[in-house]
Amino acid sequence: MAPIGLTDVAVTDFVLNQRNGVKGLVDVISPKTLPSRYVQLPEKRVTPEKLMIEATTTGKGGSLAPVIPVIDVSDWNNPNVAEEIYDASTTLGFFQIVNHGVSLDEQNKLRGVGRAFFDLSAEEKKRYWEESSVSETASYMTSFKPSMEAKLEWRDALKFDFKNRYDQVDFAATWPTVCRDEVVKHSDNMKPIGKKILEILMKNLNARMVEKTLMGSLRMNINYYPKCPEPKLAVGTGRHCDMNTLTLLLQDDIIGTLYARCGDKWLHVPPVMGALVVNIGDVLQILSNDRYKSAEHLVMANQFLSRVSFAYYLGPGYDSVIEPLREVLQNGEKPLYKATKYADYMKYYFGRPHSAGNKTIESVKLH
Ligand SMILES: O=C(O)CCC(=O)C(=O)O
Ligand SMILES: [Fe+2]
Known about the structure:
Layout: H1 8-17, H2 21-29, E1 70-72, H3 79-90, E2 94-98, H4 104-118, H5 122-126, E3 138-142, E4 156-161, H6 180-203, H7 211-215, E5 217-225, E6 237-240, E7 246-250, E8 258-262, E9 265-268, E10 276-280, H8 282-287, E11 297-299, E12 307-315, E13 321-322, H9 326-329, E14 340-341, H10 342-350
Parallel strand pairs: 1-2
Antiparallel strand pairs: 2-10, 3-4, 4-5, 5-12, 6-11, 7-10, 7-12, 8-9, 8-11, 13-14
This protein binds 2-oxoglutaric acid and fe (ii) ion (FE2).
Fe (ii) ion binds next to loops.
C-alpha cells in the first residue's frame, strides 16, 4: 500500500502537472514504498525466470547462453570487424564496441553534465518541460507517454533534436547551458562512429550508403533513473524497439539495468568500461527486409543508485520514405514492409505508450 498522500491523483499532480518528474518525487517526498501509479501489472514486471542466465552451461548439452558481443573497432578496415558487426546485427541486433576513439575522460565529463542538468533546481528544469519548453529542440519530460499510461515508467529524460540545424552556428543556443557544450561535442563524436557502422551494414547488403535516409536526423536522450524503493514492481524504460536506424548508447558504468530481448527471455547488457552499446532500430530492419533485427529492450530500476544513460539516435531525414531497399529485393524477394514517410512512422511511434504491446514495425508490415 502506498502511504497516505501518494494516491494516483496526488502523484499525477506532483510528477506531471507540477512538472517535478520522478526525480522530484524521490528528492522531495522520498517514498518508502512504490506509489501505485508506478506499480506495473504482474505481466509487465521482469521477474527472475524471464531473465537469461549469461554464460552458464544449460544442462548436459553444455551449450552456452549467448552474450552481447564486445567488438574491438580500433581498425575499422579489419574484415573481422565488419563480420562481427554483421553477425550481431542479423541475430541479437545488439553489440558493444570498444576502442572507438572517444576517451573515458570525455565519457565521464558527459555523465557529469548529464547529472548536473537533473540536479538543477525544479524551477530551472521546468523551463524545458515538454510542450512549453523555452527551447524548440530540447525538452524535459518523464516516463514515455504519460497521458496514455495507466502505469508510469520510473524515468525522466532530457531530449535533444539536432534536426538539420547542424550547420547553423548557434543551433544549441536555447539548450540548457549546464550540458549543451558536452552534448554538442558528444554528437560530433558519435556521428562518424554511427556512419562507419552504417557503411559496414550497407556494404553487406551491397547497397549504397545514402546519408539522408540513414542518418538525416540526429536525436539524443539523456535518461535519468532515480533510485527506486521497490524496483521489482517498477520498470525504468518499458520494453520497446527503437524506431530509427541505429542507436549508440553510453550507459552507466556501474548500474547495469539494460536488457535485450533474446528468444523469449531478457539478456543482460552489462556495463563494459569505455564501451558504447549499439542497437539496430526498426528502420534498418525495414530497409534490409528483415535481415537486420530491431532488438526489443528494456531498463529495470535499481534500489540503491541512480543511473544516467545517453542514447544517440541516428535516423532517416523526416521526409525520407522508408521501404525495403531495391538492392535487397533484386533477386525477386517480396518486400515485407510498405513504403512509409519517416515523419509518419515517428508520429505513430510517439503516439502510443510502450505498454501498448505490439511493435510499431507491425503497423507497416505487408501481410
Ligand atoms: O537507458 C538505457 O539504457 C536505454 C534507454 C533506451 O532504450 C532509449 O532511450 O531508447
Ligand atoms: Fe531504446
